[in-house]
């Protein structure tokens, strides 16, 4: 019984501690385990491999991600490297000019196009700037195997030619000449450039791209207020969780003590009953006195 109570108490403590640790994490970084761009790219590639079986060359496939990623659009196109070199690609928001070679060279390649929509700011953040357009991206993979895409990204050798990325018209409140193109790289790196024409950015490599404007003091304040609110929520939630933990431990301790007292009372009832007497208001046990008759000396005296 005591072992069972101890196991339950430790189990309750571990559950409460895990809840306490999870509160600030959910507040600061969201509840998605795919919290980095690298992990998202790996997941999309894995999901594409599981969803598409023997994709046809030249056919556009729209891949529907699970509900937790429903804000992200993914399209996949398979090319022959020879036709990719001659014609290039004009797809949706991207224009990849001809005479681009995948490196290392492969006979066939697949390009995965992404539009992160409302999840853009969850995966990409530029300090001091606000993203005003969805993050658009594309990556090239080896497709020589007709059933499985290669896990390693291919480099596209542009030889000085520029890839164009077209964005939807941005809100009028941002039409102040401060809009910059931003190329979002690995490990939170980023690179700014000017728009080559309205709503159009240029790049020399594959990756992810967006439009950004400098944060105004009011936006800085809003961002700081939001972070402060999450800290308050985490602190208050942690305090209540710790209070609940203390209450649970106290209740379990009392339960264990009561169990021990009941066991001691049961054991005492099985023993020899003792009389009681009072000294003042104190009740004390008293054993009845039984005189042991001498067996040797008195018998000899009587005889």
Unreliable sequence segments:
19-32
CATH domain topology of the domain at 36-215: Chondroitinase Ac, Chain A, domain 3
Main sheet makeup: 10 strands, antiparallel
Strand-and-helix sequence, N→C?
Answer: HHEEHEEEEHEEEEEEEEHEEH
Helical content band: 25-40%
Which structural class matches the secondary elements? alpha+beta
What best-fitting shape do the alpha-carbon axes yield? Answer: elongated
Radius of gyration based on Cα positions:
37 Å
Supply the CATH architecture of the domain at 36-215.
Sandwich
Number of strands: 16
Name of the level-1 CATH class of the domain at 36-215: Mainly Beta
Task: Give the termini separation.
Answer: 63 Å
| Number of H/I helices | 6
Mean pLDDT: 79
Strand fraction: 25-35%
Pfam family, one: DUF1191
């Amino acid at each position: 019984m005591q072992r069972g109570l101890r196991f339950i108490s430790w189990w309750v403590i571990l559950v409460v501690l895990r809840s306490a640790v999870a509160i600030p994490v959910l507040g600061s970084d969201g509840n998605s385990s795919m919290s980095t761009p690298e992990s998202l790219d790996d997941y999309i590639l894995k999901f594409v491999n599981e969803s598409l079986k023997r994709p046809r060359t030249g056919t556009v496939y729209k891949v529907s991600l699970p509900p937790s990623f429903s804000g992200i659009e993914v399209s996949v196109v398979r090319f022959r490297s020879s036709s990719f070199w001659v014609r290039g690609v004009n797809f949706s928001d991207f224009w990849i000019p001809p005479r681009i070679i995948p490196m290392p060279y492969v006979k066939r390649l697949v390009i995965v196009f992404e539009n992160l929509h409302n999840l853009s700011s969850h995966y990409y953040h530029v300090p001091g700037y606000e993203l005003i357009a969805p993050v658009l991206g594309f990556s090239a993979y080896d497709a020589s195997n007709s059933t499985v895409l290669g896990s390693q990204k291919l480099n596209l050798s542009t030889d000085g030619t520029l890839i164009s990325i077209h964005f939807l018209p941005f809100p009028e409140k941002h039409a102040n000449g401060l809009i910059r193109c931003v190329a979002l790289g690995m490990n939170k790196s980023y690179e700014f450039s000017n728009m080559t024409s309205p709503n159009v950015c240029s790049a020399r490599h594959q990756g992810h791209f967006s439009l950004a404007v400098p944060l105004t003091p009011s936006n800085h304040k809003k961002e700081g207020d939001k972070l402060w609110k999450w800290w308050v929520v985490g602190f208050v939630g942690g305090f209540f969780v710790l209070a609940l933990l203390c209450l649970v431990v106290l209740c379990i301790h009392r339960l264990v003590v009561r169990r021990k007292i009941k066991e001691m009372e049961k054991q005492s009832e099985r023993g020899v009953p003792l009389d009681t007497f009072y000294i003042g208001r104190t009740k004390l046990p008293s054993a009845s006195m039984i005189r042991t008759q001498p067996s040797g000396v008195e018998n000899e005296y009587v005889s």
